[in-house]
Specification:
The chain is built from 23 helices and 19 strands. It has three domains: 4-144 and 308-328, Response regulator (Rossmann fold); 159-303, Glycogen Phosphorylase B (Rossmann fold); 337-481, no CATH class. By secondary structure, the chain is an alpha/beta fold. Strands 12, 13, 14, 15, 16, 17, 18 and 19 form an eight-stranded mixed sheet that branches. The chain has a six-stranded parallel sheet with strand order 2-1-3-4-5-6, sandwiched between helices.
Length: 554
């Protein structure tokens, strides 16, 4: 195909890391599509210089390079909301494309709020296509395989069953069940050495080339589909196995079946019993297994290579002349006003509140020691209007004058996956935006929040949870110490990593300020480091110290 004579800025997290999927999936393929491609790696810049400097360098690059396209892979809050909004200020006609691989846990709380600055979505969780359509967000299917990397090697089958990956989600449960059933299988990947029962099955960590070889040498390759929260998650692994002309037995997720048909070119399981039965069946019925392998291989090679799917998506985007989603959002919401109420306003009669709110559609609230972050109102209005929910709650960035921003507890994940007491203890009325008519019907309910009552009226049906810190507070909040991975986000780890990479960790005043703050102002931070950070050092002495403090704090 002829290259698109435009400039593409590939500003995706970890794009310069040759071992990471983003580099492997986009670095070369995009250069076959566009005449001029420049890489900008947010991870690389953040780890060396910090988040603020990364955002500055990104905006400077937009002004100097002036791309026609920008491709993002947003991991969390690495880009400030203000940065994403400024993209269209600098380049009003640039087409901004985002790859979303985790809509199963990030759709309403992350993809939707960030879509305020995104024009086109590349997605792999195809069970969400109806919702993209409902919200009129342009999307393209990117559930494919790197067919240059994953390929048939025509090797003899050495193993009955194989799995490569870490022991997360429901994988332990399934593989322990296979142990009980005396299934012959091999395991690869980090973490399994911590489980002695798998010692005879464990092959160690598997580098890429050996991984592809192992797929080719296995009669059945297991593909588990749950993420770290135990939510069904479509993975590219199944299609990678297909591209090797090998057999994939995949944990069921509805998103696969927009492309495949069970028993024809796909095999799936929903529970331990079905997994065991299908392993037994397909080991005994080689002809049926190979028939599925052949049809799946042909389909993936013809239709679902990463290169073809990217070609198709960007050719269609290039031809699209409709108004861009990011520009439509700016026109509708950017300069729209929101009314802020404070505690004293609740002393007014309802008629007075109706008069005060008459010119506004949305209400926010002020609280002592809370302040909004730039473009907070824009993002919450946009999200509420899209989702048609009368309440919105955003994350609150915990901050200190001494050490700056240091943590935020995610409202979505703490509500759904953590002891809910942390959610109720951490939220403040300052994090809310409410649709005016809903507020006027429930004034007493919101008044109770100022009085310290728990917000038990919140539920997923009436509330949109936004996993972005859009307000900042210097209040000290109670934080969880256990089971909070991917729920409690720490800026401190990043700050210390940057100082270490700059070789300034002991010369910077930050370390000493952190010590003062942790010992004398907020001892929770010290406890957090002792329990959560020391074990990740993989230093045996530090791990023992962490376990000692863990028992002490109990």
């Amino acid at each position: 195909m002829q290259k698109i004579n435009k400039k593409m800025l590939l500003a995706a997290w970890s794009v310069n890391n040759p071992y990471w999927i983003i580099n492997q999936a986009y670095h070369i393929p995009l250069r076959k599509i566009f005449k001029d491609v420049k890489d900008f790696d947010p991870q690389e810049v953040i780890y060396q210089h910090g988040k603020e400097e990364m955002n500055r360098q990104f905006l400077d690059l937009l002004k100097s390079y002036r791309p026609d396209y920008i491709m993002l892979f947003l991991v969390w809050d690495e880009f400030y909301p203000e940065t994403l909004i400024k993209i269209k200020e600098i380049l009003p006609e640039v087409k901004v494309v985002q790859w979303n691989g985790d809509d199963d846990i990030k759709f309403e709380n992350y993809t939707i709020p960030y879509s305020v600055g995104i024009d086109y979505q590349l997605i792999s969780q195809l069970q969400f296509t109806d919702r993209y359509d409902a919200y009129k967000l342009p999307w393209f299917d990117l559930l494919g395989a790197d067919t240059n990397k994953f390929r048939p090697l025509n090797l003899k089958k050495k193993y009955d069953v194989a799995f490569v990956g870490t022991p997360k989600g429901d994988r332990l449960k399934y593989l322990r069940y296979l142990l009980k059933k005396n299934v012959k299988f091999v395991l690869g990947g980090a973490g399994w050495d911590e489980y002695p029962e798998f010692r005879e099955h464990y092959l160690g960590k598997i580098p890429d080339e050996k991984f592809i070889k192992l797929i080719n040498e296995s009669k059945i390759n297991l593909c588990f589909s749950q993420n770290f929260f135990g939510v069904p998650h479509v993975i590219e692994r199944s299609l990678a196995v297909n591209a090797c002309k090998a057999f994939a037995l995949t944990e069921y997720v509805s998103g696969y079946f927009t492309k495949f048909r069970e028993g024809k070119d796909f095999a799936s399981f929903k529970n331990e019993k079905e997994l065991y039965e299908k392993i037994t069946y397909y080991l005994e019925n080689e002809k049926e297994r190979e028939k599925i392998v052949k049809l799946a291989y042909e389909k993936v090679i013809k239709n679902f290579s990463n290169q073809k799917m990217l070609n198709d998506a960007f050719n269609e985007i290039e031809q699209d002349s409709k108004s861009l989603n990011g520009n439509r959002a700016r026109t509708k919401y950017l300069n729209k006003s929101v009314l802020y109420l404070d505690k004293s306003d609740f002393n007014q009669r309802i008629d007075s509140l109706k008069n005060k709110t008459a010119k506004y559609d949305y209400i926010c609230f002020t609280s002592k020691r809370y302040s909004p972050i730039s473009h907070r109102e824009f993002i919450q209005m946009y999200t509420m209007d899209l989702l048609k929910k009368p309440i919105s709650i955003c994350n609150a960035q915990l901050s200190s004058r001494l050490i700056g921003d240091y943590m935020h507890l995610d409202v979505y994940y703490s509500y759904h996956y953590l002891d809910r007491k942390y959610f109720y203890e951490n939220i403040d009325l300052a994090q809310f935006m409410v649709e005016k008519n809903f507020f006027l019907k429930n004034v007493e309910m919101f008044k109770g929040l100022y009085a310290g009552k728990l917000s038990k009226f919140i539920n997923p049906q009436n509330t949109s949870f936004i996993s972005l810190p859009l307000v900042r507070t210097n209040q000290i909040k109670k934080i969880p110490f256990k089971g909070a991975d991917h729920i409690l986000f720490s800026n401190l780890n990043l700050n210390l990593l940057v100082l270490r990479n700059q070789k300034k960790i002991f010369r910077s005043p930050f370390l000493y300020k952190l010590g003062i703050y942790s010992f004398f102002i907020n001892p929770q931070i010290l406890k957090y480091f002792l329990i959560n950070i020391l074990p990740k050092t993989k230093n045996s002495i530090l791990i023992k110290i962490s376990h000692l403090f863990d028992r002490f704090f109990k």
